[in-house]
Amino acid sequence: MAYDGRILRRAYQKFEEDRQQRQDRFQSRREAIFLRQPRLREIEGELRSTMSRIIASALRRGTDPLPAVEVLKEENLGLQEEKRRLLAQMGLPEDALEERPACPLCGDSGYRGGQVCRCLRKYYAREQQKELSRMLDLGGQSFETFSLNWYSDAYDPMLGISPRKNMAQILEICRSYAETFSQESGSLLLTGDPGLGKTFLSAAIARVVSGDGWSVVYDTAGRIFQRFEAQKFGREEGDGASTDVERVLSCDLLILDDLGTEMTTSFVQSALYQLLNGRLLAGKSTVISTNLDPEELGRRYGAPLLSRLEGEYQLLPFVGTDIRRLKREQG
Description:
Elements: H1 5-36, H2 38-61, H3 65-75, H4 77-89, E1 111-112, E2 115-116, H5 118-133, H6 163-179, E3 187-192, H7 198-211, E4 216-220, H8 221-233, H9 240-250, E5 253-259, H10 266-281, E6 285-290, H11 294-301, H12 303-312, E7 313-318, H13 323-330
């Protein structure tokens, strides 16, 4: 799983803030217990100081401190029993003075076996969705709110089915793609006239996939190619463009919206082929939405790109009447 370093840093900062808040709350509860029963503070101090001396002695001799700790436990049975008794009298469990990690897998470190732990992945998913929400209405654009009522149920001889049935099939394909997303999910090509729901379903896919902790980059083709040009021709100071390009190349899922609305140049044609071909070779998934049909894509971007799209992408044709226009007419 690939991670955007910038988003991961923000996620880890929030993760650490929450961990510190939990620790502060625990220390407050612990202090409240000591205030109610001062003898518990004394017992804790005696146990801690004795353990420190035994471990330090074992380390100085170069021996394993664990046997010494076991001896300590036996020697301090009286103190431990007194501690349990006092806590029980207060109606508290015997481990009330022991801090437990919120995540037993990583001990609240955020990493396990050199990999991001699932607890930190949840923070990453939330931060990533904040990032995506700057461009998308993730709150309103979901599979649950996608309505098929805007599509005609009249039979279309070109499709062989009605536009509504066609969209019902596309909706199910997109939902399944998002809910079962993995590194083997492949890529989708959403084509059709404007206002038929391509961006809506792309946003729904982004919402689910990013919510599962996968790294998702969603942007328009025009903006992505601007970042490629800025990197290639050094049109801005710093490494911002290079960072943006790296995100596009390495993310688990790239959603490329509005392909075909940008100014098409030889640079754009080359950059698009290198981007999509590179992601295919790296086993990275991409979702493309475009108002162009496959034949138009071939004419604009060249036969090699069309060959890659037809051979590697699942084609989902959107058919119907512009939903935005229908809403205006009804409003």
